[in-house]
UniProtKB/TrEMBL annotation:
The keyword Acetylation does not apply. This is Diguanylate cyclase. It comes from the Bacteria. It comes from Exiguobacterium undae. Residues 24-275 form the EAL domain.
Amino acid sequence: YQAKSSGGKSIIFFEDIAEKASYRLRLESELPVAIDTNQLILYYQPQVDTVTYRMVGVEGLIRWNHPELGMIAPNDFIPMAEEAGMIIRLGEWVLREGFLQAKQWEDDGLTLKVGLNVSMQQFHHPTFVLTLVRLVEETQVNPARIDLEITEVSAVEDIEETVETMNRLKELGFTISIDDFGTGYSSLSRLADFPIDTLKIPREFVEKIQPATTGYSMISSIIHLAKSLELEVIAEGVETLEQVNVLNRLECSRMQGYYFGRPMPHEQIPALYQK
Ligand code: C2E
Ligand code: MG
Ligand code: MG
Ligand code: MG
């Protein structure tokens, strides 16, 4: 296999399935070292309120800056880390890094919410809440600045346990979002039982937002549902002005996507925040 750089992102070409498997094995064997040698990096993508046109938050998105292969996208190694039993360590790295950054921005006077993705194994791990307590102490972050993004799949596994864990996260002061809402299997009847704050509308619906499409009706249903449950909504993957306009008409005023900014190194966030 060979890494080719294009616009800061590496695209890996595989000759065949065996090569793909060896690529995966290489990543799997090198990930522990990557965690210890600062090859992982959190990028941050702006979230904008389109009524005030202010940046109100960012989502932390992990990348692996591999010394030979270049920037590796999370979809190439997060599922592998989950299967190989490394997601707990990796997830803790993400939380610590995101907490330190959120604390730094708060000290610098930026009013930003920092969203961090939590994998379902991490969420259901017996020490998850304790890890959060320890990391809050260690980093001195204000938990009110942190939004924990959980996928629907994590939420449906064991509803009683999930509600209990979520309640403890809320007691600690975190907010909770359901990522990619509508693509998983949540039972709508139980949604009201979850002490969550925000539904994130996935890019796959935003992509097909033209009126009279399934994307449009999914989005408008999610927005109505959120309203009736008194939850926030944020649309992901917003790339065009047309999408912005349709979302605004549907009264979804928090958006995230390439139209507003790509995931970027933390150094670039303050300047964008001031604009
Ligand atoms: P996600 O949490 O749903 O994140 C949104 C993904 O959409 C990100 O991909 C983001 O770069 C991409 N995106 C945002 N706006 C646009 C747009 O306008 N157009 C297009 N085409 N894409 C857009 P990314 O960074 O490759 O991350 C993919 C997934 O990997 C994330 O989906 C999340 O599930 C997972 N992930 C990323 N970072 C972490 C992490 O720290 N921990 C865990 N457990 N999972 C992570
Ligand atoms: Mg997310
Ligand atoms: Mg998402
Ligand atoms: Mg996702």
